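Below is the data:
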Amino acid sequence: PCLLLLDAFSAHWTAQTTAKMEEIGITTYKIPPGCTYLTQPIDVGIGKPFKDRVRSFWWEWMQALGADNATFASPSREIGTKWVADSWDSIPADIVRNAWRKTDFSYFVDE
């Protein structure tokens, strides 16, 4: 059996998504508003530093193009994928451990 806790993001709850989850044997549960931090440590503890890193790569790229706040450009998938990989690789293990420990879902042996 598998239980997947999801926030209220609309894409999680489309008929197509919920049907597919049922089809492959995943039970879903909608986390009540304001409770994400209790059940999704990665979203809370890692999401912000990860997104900040990706945004930093994007902003440096935009500046190198000569763009400013009024101009928008889209990177290629290859460039975007590299930013994601590099951003993830730069997240220290301590941030990951601490995200889980804050929610009492610690899978790490205390040193």
Remarks:
- Residues 41-64 form the longest helix (24 residues).
- The longest strand covers residues 2-6.
- The CA atoms of residues 77 and 91 lie 21 Å apart.
- The two ends are 32 Å apart (CA to CA).
